[in-house]
Amino acid sequence: MSDILDKRRAGILLHITSLPGAGDKGDLGREAYHFINFLHDAGITVWQTLPLTAPHADGSPYQCLSAHAGNPALINIEWLVSQGWLQLPDNNEEAQITLKANKSGLLNRAFSGFLAQADEQDKDSFEHFCLAQGFWLNDFSLFIALRNVFNQVCWNQWPELLKERDAKAIREVRRRLKPEIQSIKFTQYVFFRQWLELKAYALQQGVLLLGDIPIFVSYDSADVWTNRDVFKLDEAGEMLVVAGVPPDYFSETGQRWGNPHYDWTYLEKTGFAWWLERMRTQLELFDILRIDHFRGLEAAWEIPANEDTAINGVWAKAPGKALLNAIKTGLGSIPLIAEDLGVITHEVEQLRDEFNLPGMKILQFAFDSGPDNPYLPNNYTKNSVVYTGTHDNDTTLGWCEKLNEGQRHYIYDYLGHPSMPLHCALIQAALASIANLAIIPMQDILELGSEHRMNTPGTTEGNWNWRFQWQQLAPERTAKLAQLIQLFNRNG
Fold it and tell me: Cys-Cys crosslink for 145: which of 135, 180, 186, 191, Cβ 3.0 to 4.6 Å?
């Protein structure tokens, strides 16, 4: 769809929350800029993150409150201080304690400061943002304000008139909650400003930002509350079927994700307007987009909502060709990557190839069968993206440590680097491959073990919390990475 992926490039996979820093999670402050400098120095031209959208309490960026809204936890508080909208204690120790305090409270204080201190240019900028993003922002801000009123319970448990979006009830609650709604809009304004400033800096340093679009959205989201016709729901707004995947490499009972399925008939009738709006927002934020679970655009695993596991699901067809044509017509040729992992059929490959989308190759999947394994580098095409592993895999060092001797010998025979640590040989194999884009998780760059993995599919605790520290990145490690980038001509 775009020639931006035709060049030979290298990238690193690291979510914003995994950046170092004083707070509980990484954010869009100085460490993000420092990371871009590191990428530039190493000759890496792509930074891939996980979705930036606002998660639920479990922290998963793949189960979010909106397909559009940014995660307020990623906002850098010191930026607000620099704008003059928030004041911290003069005492540095007290200031650090305040920075670690409740971020939503600080953002509310910053909004009060904005109203009192911001100049006309900033106030006009905020107003323009609210108008330009109103197609999702108006409903999202009301949705979050109501969730706060009702102690974070799902919208299907709200009072009937609000659950059903009765026009009179919605007008009244918008009036009553106007200050809270405006503060939520301000938070999104700050997030978008900070991200777009970071994106502009990345562009100056020759770094492209690669974003991830989960194919499905959460049931408990502004999207489902305000667009019930887009999803397969009954008259009461309850899910008839839920999304997931059948039994596979990750789970013997499959994965029951619990997301609502799309009503593709309705979406086709409306020209896929909901999807186009979603893509348009993400294209503001990113240079390249990866569609997570791309195979769901050809057929998706539908599980009856009353089933506890994914075993008794069925494949339900989806109009992926019509959707991708609508995206191309409405948004032009945009750089898309197809996450084509899992149960991939000829029809899925045909859909991917018809739109010339690069698919994904995972080296950790390459050595468990014969020479026809599509993840072996000798079977790649240029139009593909190779990873040592993804956020859902073990770290490559951790994966290597679990291999038996026979498996290790087989991989060494294939790679031809018997004197090199196996995890390093796999990184080098990814960079040396014919694939136009090679992406290495930051954990693999740092040669970290299993305790540093980002996510374990099928589990709900202990995920999404990993962070790195700069002292793990010795100068010689950066120099070695830069040497490999140069050696394999991946400067982009």
Answer: 180
d(CA 290, CA 48): 9
Structural domain count, the chain: 1
For residues 12 and 391, is the Cβ–Cβ distance under 8 A? no
Residue with structure tokens 């904005």? 114
Q: In the chain, pLDDT over 90 holds for what percent of residues?
A: 89
Q: What is the pLDDT of residues 409-438, one digit of tens each?
A: 999 999 997 789 999 999 999 999 999 999
In angstroms, the Cα distances linking 382 to 46, 347, 436, 489 are 17, 21, 5, 14
Q: Is 472 within the bounds of a domain?
A: yes
The Cα angle at residue 51 between residues 390 and 441, in degrees rounded to 5:
25
Does residue 470 belong to any structural domain of this protein? yes
Residue 492: inside a domain: no
Is 372 labeled as catalytic in the residue annotation?
A: no
- pLDDT for the residue numbered 342: 82
Cα separation, 201 vs 419, whole angstroms = 40
Tokens, residue 227? 């667009």
- Quick one: tokens of 397? 């060092």
Q: Which helix (H) or strand (E) covers residue 289, if one does?
A: strand 288-291
Phi, psi (rounded to 5 degrees) for 473: -105, 80
Annotation says 392 is catalytic: yes
Q: Tell me, what CATH number does 415's domain have?
A: 3.20.20.80
Of 31, 223, 292, 444, catalytic: 292
Smallest Cα–Cα separation from 48: which of 83, 10, 77?
10
Range of the domain at 434: 3-487
Beta strands in 52-132 (DSSP E): none
- pTM over cut 0.70: yes
In the set 6, 164, 197, 392, the catalytic residue is 392
Give the model's pLDDT for residue 152.
96
Residue 173 pairs with which residues in a beta bridge? none
Structure tokens at 408: 């290790």
Q: What is the pLDDT of residue 316?
A: 96
Which pLDDT band holds residue 22 (cuts at 50, 70, 90)?
confident
For 433-486, how does the pLDDT look when each residue is reduced to its tens digit (9 = 90+)? Answer: 999 999 999 999 999 999 999 999 878 889 999 999 999 999 999 999 999 999
Q: Is 58 a catalytic residue?
A: no
Strands 288-291 and 208-213 come out as parallel
For residue 140, give both structure tokens: 């999202």
How many Cβ atoms sit within 10 Å of the Cβ of residue 229?
11
Q: Quick one: which of 291, 300, 278 has its CA closest to 347?
A: 300
